[in-house]
Amino acid sequence: MATISIPETIPSPIEDAELLRKAFVGWGTDENTIISILAHRSPSQRRLIREHYARTYGEDLLKSLDKEISGDFERVVLLWTLDPAERDALLANEAARKWHPGNNVIIEIACARSSEELFAIRRAYHARYKRSLEEDVAAHTTGDFRKLLVPLVSAYRYEGPEVNMTLAKSEAKILHGKIAEKAYSHEEIIRILTTRSKAQVIATLNHYNDEFGNPINKDLKTDPKDDFLSTLRAVIRCISTPEKYFEKVIRLAINKLGTDEGALTRIVTTRAAVDMKVIKDLYHKRNSVPLSRAISKDTSGDYEAMLLALVGQDDA
Amino acid sequence: MATISIPETIPSPIEDAELLRKAFVGWGTDENTIISILAHRSPSQRRLIREHYARTYGEDLLKSLDKEISGDFERVVLLWTLDPAERDALLANEAARKWHPGNNVIIEIACARSSEELFAIRRAYHARYKRSLEEDVAAHTTGDFRKLLVPLVSAYRYEGPEVNMTLAKSEAKILHGKIAEKAYSHEEIIRILTTRSKAQVIATLNHYNDEFGNPINKDLKTDPKDDFLSTLRAVIRCISTPEKYFEKVIRLAINKLGTDEGALTRIVTTRAAVDMKVIKDLYHKRNSVPLSRAISKDTSGDYEAMLLALVGQDDA
């Protein structure tokens, strides 16, 4: 379900590192080489290239890239080149430090990753920032948002398929009751959404829909301008239908007056090796245009080329 | 700083498993063999014995032990034989299911273990109970206790030695202000105690003491019967002076009218391979009697023998 293509026979990390070094030195920078190598290697291959590069040239590959390229192209190449856990730690740190209601990056990272992935991100966060992720989220958020976001990033949800239907019914009733009272930040809503396994949350939401006649997110849309409600909806979508959530982020990023490169780059770099194929299909269906064509229309130059290398060409 | 003694040359796990099996079959049970083997093996050695035992005899060693022995002796042998993370998962599960204000086992496990240990416990909890630790703690606690306990068990604190003194000062002031207002369960108190690294919390508490003239736990003792205050004090002691905390639990367990075997067994089995040497020294100093003598006076039979094997004999 990934969209990146990795050649059947790949050069050794030593050769890749050498070619990248050559792309940096001398007359200008050879962006094509950067793209043709980095966009077509797996995370573990990229890690080996970085290790070899650092050993041989005494400089972090990311630092060299930072010197040679700039703008949106730099951002997409740097984010992509990082290890997935490191990349998410960086994105979460930026989002925490600049947090404002409506910024859903933290929710994406907390809810649309596996439990082990989220834990790897927290470990990478320690190493990179000498603090904990939950510490920074708690320090930069307030009120209801803090009550929701801190347990979300601290969660280590059970990931088995077991579902307790009695519990799903009773907790669907709790959710419905609190929503009817407009007690959207009630601790029981937060407890259910932040501690139950995803399979259990999904069973509860299905029961909610069956029993009360509406998907929960419809009942959480009473005030479309309420940031806390939109945050709750993002939590629910990232848990229950992450690919649809990602499709929508890309759609809004592209359809904006002036593309939202930040969002587009984030989703492409975090999903290209995971589920971008599904997201692309959803995008095509929803917008009647292939994602690669939409990206081509909205972006240009090396940035466009790197995005397309990650997203892959659509079938004719 | 452990008190268990492991022989210089230890038999292979195969031999140990065979001797244990012999201790179970036939005429009665040979408790001395159980103690002489299990009390003198490291966690990894015990794991190998369990693995070999299960493979050879088609039954979990713990199950065989459960059939052969009983009461306090069984409890100490079973708890000790478990892997540290499994043991803490079991203790936390019992404490969560039977939780009542004043039960500090969850705090002990959340605050007096390293971040990596706590995470290993959460992972063991998934495997054993098909749920998450925070899920069970959240489901069985309410009100202020829930607000404090859920983030405590979900924490993955940064563990580096770095301390931000400016932050320590400002957060000491926040703690003091909220305590002066008797807002003991204020979210800022909870945020500081549950998300900061232990080194940072300790720096904050030291500053509190210097600036406001009292150790924080003195200011949290205005009502000695208030369970939430005693819970906060336990959090602070488990973070800042865990060995003193453990000494006190043992002291109270032994000095009780009728020993509290549950607490004594828990502390001995969880600390014997970690810091029991320090706890013993503190105990001797505080009570003017060596811990081993106090244990001998209060317990008997195989239970006594197992505890003494774990705690070690005191110097004459």
UniProtKB/TrEMBL annotation, chains A, B:
Q: Give the UniProt keywords, A-Z.
A: Annexin, Calcium, Calcium/phospholipid-binding, Metal-binding, Repeat
Q: Where does Ca(2+) 1 bind?
A: F24, G26, G28, E68, I254, K256, G258, T299, E304
Instruction: Respond yes or no to whether keyword Repeat is given for this record.
Output: yes
Q: Which domain of life is it from?
A: Eukaryota
Under PROSITE patterns, the record lists:
ANNEXIN_1 (PS00223), ANNEXIN_2 (PS51897)
| Leader peptide range in chain numbering | none
> What is an example of a GO molecular function annotated in this UniProt entry?
phosphatidylserine binding
The species this protein belongs to is Dioscorea zingiberensis
* Domain notes for this protein: A pair of annexin repeats may form one binding site for calcium and phospholipid.
DNA damage as UniProt keyword: no
Binding locations of Ca(2+) 3: D298
The record's similarity note reads: Belongs to the annexin family.
Pfam families tied to this protein: Annexin (PF00191)
InterPro entries named among the record's database cross-references: Annexin (IPR001464), Annexin_repeat (IPR018502), Annexin_repeat_CS (IPR018252), Annexin_sf (IPR037104), AnnexinD_plant (IPR009118)
| SMART domains per record | ANX
Entries under Gene3D superfamilies matching the protein = Annexin
Biological process (GO), any one: response to water deprivation
**Listed GO CC annotations:** cytoplasm; plasma membrane
Listed name of the protein? Annexin
